[in-house]
Amino acid sequence: MTNPHEFGIAGLLGWPVAHSRSPVIHNHWLAQFGIPGRYVLFPVPPEKLEAAVRGLSALGLRGCNVTTPHKQAIFPMLDRVDDLARRIGAVNTVVVEKDGTLTGFNNDGNGFIQSLRDAKPDWRPDSGPILVLGAGGASRAVVASLAAQGATEIRVTNRTREKAQEIADAVGAAVGIVPWEQREDALDGIAMLANATSLGSAGKPPLEMPLDRLPRDAIVGDLIYVPPETPLLAAARARGNVTVNGLGLLLNQARPAFNAWFGVMPEITPALRAAIAATF
Ligand code: ATR
């Protein structure tokens, strides 16, 4: 940790970045704890990523978040990347260490898992089989983090089977692949269902997923947060399942990043949720 009285800067490297809610989250916590500092958006085009990352330490930044399209490209520019981020194949948080070297992490999957646990404290990754819909970057973060936290049966289904196979290859024996056409059968006996496709988000078609075979005590998560309740979550909630949208991931992935940059582990308070809600 640098001198706590120094103005601390962190930010988001992405292209584009304007839509991000991360400044609201981190600047809320900085104000709450009276820490002098600022979280800033840095629109960085791909061809300038390397120069931007090289400048982090020289400019005195505490670190940064990384978003599309830089989450993979940044790997060779970092001094070390933790095991989970390696298995996920993407970095979402960079910490500038005291000696100026750069460490990469990925908190997205753990953030999602924490938001599920907040909503249903008796659920754990090893509570029973899990069904994950989709096999893009978000799915891979969730699946790798679930396996790292003890999940032993994760059923992954995706329209393009090869991408589900890539996740199985990267994560290992806990992952089984279900053909997309058979996703409804895979609801049998699950303790958790997660939607990591873009279906159901604003402007996209809804996900076709009848829930008749979903156990009543299963928790249902959707990584989407615009709209705040997708048709999938509405249907699950109507039949009595506990549901969680993607805002919990966004909020929970930010906590360990803030702690690493500013030395305080922040909480997700009603005031923070209200500040985020006001941005919609
Ligand atoms: P992210 O980084 O958010 O995960 P992504 O990598 O573009 O975004 O992944 C989007 C996911 O939604 C993928 O699983 C994608 O399936 P494909 O791998 O087959 O493309 C899924 N998806 C998007 N549109 C879909 C559709 N119309 N039907 C089924 N799956 C769809």
Task: Provide an overview of this structure.
With 280 residues, the protein is an alpha/beta fold. The chain has nine helices and twelve strands. The strands form two sheets. It has a six-stranded mixed beta sheet, sandwiched between helices. Strands 9-8-7-10-11-12 form a six-stranded parallel beta sheet, sandwiched between helices. The structure holds 2'-monophosphoadenosine-5'-diphosphate (ATR).
Comma- or semicolon-separated keywords:
280 residues; 12 strands; 19% strand; six-stranded mixed sheet; globular; alpha/beta; binds 2'-monophosphoadenosine-5'-diphosphate
Q: What is Rg?
A: 19 Å
**Overall SS class:** alpha/beta
- Beta-strand proportion: 15-25%
* DSSP helix fraction: 25-40%
**Uncertain runs with pLDDT below 50, 5 residues or more?**
none
The residue-averaged pLDDT reads: 96
Total beta-strand segments: 12
